[in-house]
Amino acid sequence: MSTERLQSLGAQLRRVHDRLRRALELSREAIERGEPGQDLTRDLSLYCVGFCAALDGHHRSEDLALFDLVLEHRPDLEPAVDKLKQDHSMLGYLIADLQQALDRGLAPGPALRHLDGIGSIMESHFRYEERQLLELLESIEAAEDATAEQLLGELA
Questions:
Q1: Range of the domain at 75
Q2: What's the pLDDT score for residue 79?
Q3: How far apart, in Å, do the first and last CA atoms of the chain sit?
Q4: φ, ψ at 145 (rounded to 5°)
Q5: Residue 123 scores a pLDDT above 50
Q6: 3-state DSSP: the chain helix, strand, coil percent, rounded to 5?
Q7: Residues 141 and 110 sit within 8 Å (Cβ to Cβ)
Q8: Which of 24, 53, 86, 155 has the most CB atoms lying inside 10 A of its own CB?
Q9: Neighbours of 153 (CB within 10 A)
Q10: What is the pLDDT at residue 8?
Q11: How far is 102 from 49, CA to CA, in rounded Å?
């Protein structure tokens, strides 16, 4: 695999983060344009649940593969990786809490508060992750990273 292809890990991470930010915006918009008294389940199923699944899947792929690659190249980033994993756990809890609330039938106000909490943690997490990892991901040499090609697909 070419160094150029591997270096696209950093660009891929940015694109995924941007797509997840947009998915959160779409979820909020779906709630905000709902009619008073409307059951949010349908719109939230389309947007929020899809967003939550994408965010959770992205974090699982980082936990299972990307972070090992990072630590292989930069063991000194272990505290940063530990913090990122902690954020993933917290976001997983918030996502599960939102999904349970949806199952109980959620009004727009509480739904937006759930999304605000997830969005706040997510944005802080993304910014920290980008500060800590992008430079490294954009500089890794391709010769020793057979798993990088697979990672590009998994991060999406």
A1: 3-155
A2: 95
A3: 19
A4: -120, 75
A5: yes
A6: 85, 0, 15
A7: no
A8: 24
A9: 9
A10: 67
A11: 9
